[in-house]
Amino acid sequence: MMDCGKKEEAGPSHGGVTWDKRKEEEDGESEEDDHHQDPSAAATSFIPGPLLSLKDQIEKDKEDESLRRWKEKLLGCLESDLDGQMEPEVKFHSVGILSSDFGEINTPLPIKEEQSNYVLFTLREGSEYRLKLTFSVLHNIVSGLAYTNIVWKAGLQVDQSKGMLGTFAPHREPYIHMLEEETTPSGALARGTYTAKLKFMDDDKRCHLELNYSFEISKAR
């Protein structure tokens, strides 16, 4: 589930693929006709361009004022904010838990190693909750940011969930993203303390965060 309406998303950071899309649409339909005739040939012949910094991508079309302004609007930042670094960085500021039991609890990130064994939150059995993430994207576009969340109890894996956050461009304001709503299990065996690992990776297999945490499920009132 996407919840990034406050900010526009951007495409991959490979040169020529993201920013030149609008101009490619003006080149006529001859190439499109060829692709429709033989889709497999189009797929096998596509070679992504080299990874470019956003600064380089903006400077490519610096003489086109309207296109430059469009890029800045998409990015939500100005050229002066870009440092030319190739690799994107996702900086997570906090992880929150939202539940009808207690409202909202937010924990600043990163969590210290000694805190990973502390119970960050307690949920009642059979209750609904959602995780809330606040993060920033720096330097370049991050493509296909996804998460996995693995949960253990007494050393045994009891749950695993995964999902896609999306593709995000650098922006002055942090992104806020809500993960899918989940329901805690019920019953005497479900109660107790759990450990979990929340991990975020992008399409290029960069790991931007690996968070170990603990939570508790208590008896319903």
UniProtKB/TrEMBL annotation:
Pfam families to which the protein is assigned, alphabetical: Rho_GDI
Keywords of this entry: Cytoplasm
Protein's UniProt keywords contain Calcium: no
GO biological process assignments: Rho protein signal transduction
Cell compartments where the protein resides: Cytoplasm
Family annotation (Gene3D superfamilies): Coagulation Factor XIII, subunit A, domain 1
Keyword Cytoplasm part of the UniProt annotation: yes
Molecular-function GO terms, alphabetical: Rho GDP-dissociation inhibitor activity
Composition bias type Basic and acidic residues, residue spans: 1-11
Renumbered residue ranges of the record's region Disordered: 1-49
GO CC list: cytosol; membrane
PANTHER family: RHO GDP-DISSOCIATION INHIBITOR (PTHR10980), RHO GDP-DISSOCIATION INHIBITOR 1-LIKE (PTHR10980:SF49)
Annotated family: Belongs to the Rho GDI family.
Name of the protein: Rho GDP-dissociation inhibitor 1
Lineage, opening ranks: Eukaryota, Viridiplantae, Streptophyta, Embryophyta, Tracheophyta
Gene responsible for this protein: LOC101249491
